[in-house]
Amino acid sequence: MPSRSLKPLPPEFPVPREISGVLSPRRGTSFFEKFCRFSRRVLGRLVSGYRLSPRTEEKLKEAGISVSGEEWLSGFILALILPGLPFFIAWIFEPSLTDSLYMPVLGLLVGSLSAFVFQVYPEAKAASNMARAQADVVSAISVLSFSLYHKPDLRGAVARAADATEGELSKDLRLGLLQLSQHGKYESVRHLLTDLAEKWGRKNESVRQAFFDVLRSSGASEESSRVSDLMRAPSRILESSEEQLSVKLNSLVLPTIAFLTFGSILIVVTVGLSPVFGIVNPSLLDLRFFIGTVLVIVAVFLVFSLYMVSCRPPILLPAILVRDREGLTCSLSRASVLLPLVVFILLSLPGFLYVAGYRTGHIGFLTMSLSTLWIVLAAGVSVGMYGHLRYSPLLTVRESERRRVADWENALNFIGSRMLDGKSAGRAMLEASGQFSGELSQDLRAAGERMERSGMDMEGAMNKKENPLIQSFISQISRLRGESEFAAGRACMVAAEFLHMLRKTEERFRKRMNEVLGNLWMVSLVLIPVVCAMSVWIIEFMSGMRHAQMSQTSMAGLSTFPFMVGALEKSELAILRLVMGLAAIALSAVIGWFISNIRSPGDKVEMWLNISKSSLISSLIFTLATSLLLFMVPGGSIF
């Protein structure tokens, strides 16, 4: 009967294809890989024979992206050409190529930024993978130290640490053990750990020192010195990360604030002041110019966000203890898509009716109230609903898991204390269940009854699959219990101490990140929609000036007036308001994605909850700011 607990072998280990197909889980093909392979089929022989540079190949490997040199070059070429192609096609069919010369310029900008996104994405993905790997390093080192604390068996401790997580360090440990036993690459387990200390130390110096703490403990002559080295190993990584947390966060936050300031100025200059540019070239007041400019601005924000994510220091550890439960999002996917879609259709219907020309009667009163702002609100609300319906249940599960880890910390302390008093493990678990309420209390009672009734070990009695780190601790406590109840009791209390250290450090990390990134998120959330609304207001204000000047000029009997600013009609202003409202939502979503990748890279729950809140609040602020600013325009109105 095959065991589900078998760990997949690393791809570097030479095993037959039939065996690797069984042991190694199949990884899904990412959109980036699909795009590159599609591009290779399109370009064919034009890119044949191209090879990746060593640096690009290394980054793609770190990002977990599997593409050949020909596929990568094909993807880069299409990423450069496709986004700008519609601009060039539209420009060719223009009656005056010189008046619409801005269209190919915008096409070149969009294409260049798209190609830059293509290049930076693997680096950002690699940085996210490295951050998650560093979190797994803490778990693996904790298991390694915990195992050696109770039994100075270095090889057995490395084997248990290799089985603790699915992270990169655990994979390296499994590969190293296989090479030690079958290929003779390493002379001893100490040689293996020394090699890994050098490899991982290049990425994080504290990991190197943690490995040397473990190695030093195996050669210590005094028990107190050995225990001190083992307890120092995981805490060294956590303390080093915590000491550098503020400095590393500021290295990301301060440039982002500067960029948001520059981006706000860019929006005002390119969109808000376009009527002034219209004095030189009236075609710059074309709605197509505004749409192209907005696409360029969104691409600039995306490029900056990807670049900053690629610069994320791996020492900023994401969540260490909490892991998501699988399958929850799938059961909610249908409702999470249909309900937002229905809400979008109903809420945006007045806006589309306004665009279609229904502006009289009872329907006209509804459509004219907010005009195209109905569509902006519908987009923000529907995205917010999607994120809430699909991912807020997982957030609730995470909070439950955090409480469960805290309960396990107290339970292990209580169980260990009662076992040191001479109680059996089963009886200690039964007594511990009375000290708590909730799901863990029921699980402890059921496990204690099974242990007392049938003599099962602790690991077998706990039917529910726990957090990987707690599961590893329970497994080792069960093995120690076979030797001595006293040793198992002490192991319970030491495991509680490890959990306390990791949990408190994670809480401090989360609190500090929320303080710094929360302020950045609020600034971007207010600044971007207000600036977008002000850009439309400036154009409407200048359009009002233009119409007033035209009226005065005609009353004076003049046909024209020199250096008159450009203007947009009411219907064009409504469409521009829609474009800028959607731009505000898109820009806020990009910043929300950036903040989620700094706080917890690769975390879909964090990402979508940030995007959904950003989209909803941004649409509301844009609508409110637009309504308030219109009172400052003489005769201004939404419709």
Put the structure in a nutshell.
The chain is mainly alpha-helical and 639 residues long.
Report on the structure:
- The chain has 639 residues and is mainly α.
- It folds into three domains: 181 residues, no CATH class; 248 residues, no CATH class; 102 residues.
- Helix 8 runs antiparallel to helix 9 and helix 18 runs antiparallel to helix 19.
- The longest helix is centred in the last third of the chain and has 71 residues.
- It is elongated and about 105 Å long.
- The N terminus is likely disordered.
Helix content: over 70%
Structural class: mainly alpha
Overall outline: elongated
Radius of gyration: 31 Å
Low-pLDDT runs of 5+ residues are: 1-6, 11-25, 325-331
Number of helices: 24
How many angstroms does the end-to-end distance come to?
Answer: 71 Å
* Total strands: 0
What is the ordering of alpha helices and beta strands? HHHHHHHHHHHHHHHHHHHHHHHH
Instruction: Note the beta-strand portion.
Output: under 5%
List keywords for this structure.
single chain, 639 residues, mainly alpha, 3 domains, 76% helix, disordered N terminus
